[in-house]
Amino acid sequence: MDIATIVGLISALGLIYVSLGDGVSSFIDMPSVYIVLGGSIAVVLFRSSLSEFLGAIGVMGKTFKNKLDKPEDLIEKLVELADIARKDGMIALEGQEISNPFLAKGIGMLVDGSDPDLIKKSLNKDIQAMRSRHKSGADIFSSWGEVAPAMGMIGTLVGLVLMLGNMSDPKSIGPAMAVALLTTLYGAILANVICLPMSQKLRNQSDFEAQNCELIIEGVLFIQSGGNPRILADLLSSFLAPKVRAKLKSASA
Fold this sequence. Notes:
This protein is mostly helical. It has a domain at 30-63 and 114-252. It has helices spanning 3-19, 30-47, 50-60, 71-88, 101-111, 116-165, 170-224, 229-236, 242-252.
């Protein structure tokens, strides 16, 4: 699980909840929920297709799961595979336990004797498809974050119209004012606490996963060329942060 996502979301919502004090019930208004949540979902669906919207909900799970491999772990695995291929040939790579699907595909193409250009072209297409899926999901949440405050403003206007239209009935002023104010609050929370951070998280994870994939391509092509496994780690260290690079270098020394 991605601790940062869970802690950040729970902390933000928790702090808002604590700030409400003992009057939590006064901040709950179902007409405001219908206008902001239901209305914003409807508008986002109008802006996109059903498959795109459902795909974004599926991609959202990536922000709560931390299944991305660390680059240093991928480098260690690639060096191990390069050493096996150097000693026993490409066919020895068949049946090796590889948890990363992208790496498994690249190694599978090596075992099949595929041309280096074909390997690079095929894997790069997979990266493009992955980026496209993630971009679509991020755009949905970005659009949702844009629409939510607007629906909150619409709810505020609705509440003000209801209030001004019933000034002669004091009992109706309170509920109308609640709709007017709470829709703005709900729209701001939905946009700034959930949708926009979710969009940014998806874009960041997409970039990180694409970088891992590029590292794998470099490693797979190096193995295909029959290069010395001892220099593979140095070749791929450019994908690492300086501190991690130094740690990996000291560990392999």
